[in-house]
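Annex B, item 7. Sequence and structure tokens for protein A, then protein B.
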Amino acid sequence: MIQTTGIYHIGIPVDDLDRAERFYTEILGMKVEARAQEEGAVLSRLKCGSADVVLFKRPRPLARNTLKEDGITHQAFEVAPETFDKAVDFLKSQGLYHSGPVVRPSGRAVYFFDSEGNYQQLHVSK
């Protein structure tokens, strides 16, 4: 067994790195730390609180229906309780909202699509 101690980063595939960077900075408030080319991949490293999110440019764009192809696979981003309802309203106003809020023992969640068609979640803990 390997005992992991945390997550180094979350990797998200994107078709258009500039468009995705704008989405994750302007819509989700992340900060660009660096852009790089590593092992033939073009990527953008973002800060999400104390965590790293890395946008990886796909070698070729994919035209696909995310929910049909990937099911409900997603990343879940935490927001502060006092901003959750405003965040939901914002997603709706931007035409990004998909479903929710869902109430769970862990808190509430809504689902949305990013600029690249990836399914994502906003979560607020109880």
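Protein B:
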Amino acid sequence: MRKRMKQLSITVLTLVMSLFGATSAFAYDGWADSIPTAYSLNGPISGVSTTINGSDDVDWFSWTNDTGKSVNFVASLQSPAGKNYDLHAVTYTGSSYLSNGAATDHGAGAIDSMGGNLPAGWTMYFQVRGQTGSDYSTSLTYNINFSYS
């Protein structure tokens, strides 16, 4: 029970911090830098905020469809002002990885989004990275949102 309360407290704190624009405690190079270390979204989720810390930094997020049915999803990325980040997606079917491509790019500081259908049991991976070598910041946060229906 104590462990569950601690996990709930961390989740609530992270959500509150993201709502008020605070940098996530998870924002550092070496965090969620690959598919095996992707940050699991317990979707739907709104407001995971963190940073891209260098020209070679990427962040991965994942969501597994454990609803028992096929669902439609939407993922969106809000780049920080003056920076242009890209959102890419990969689907894992349980036996192979399939590229879903990139969200439509709307430029620096804008919101890029993508959606689709995800069968039951499959996992979506979302990658966030700077579009160019100068699109990163150790202090300006981006925001990723995920929902399904």
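Comment on protein B: The chain has one domain: 2-148.
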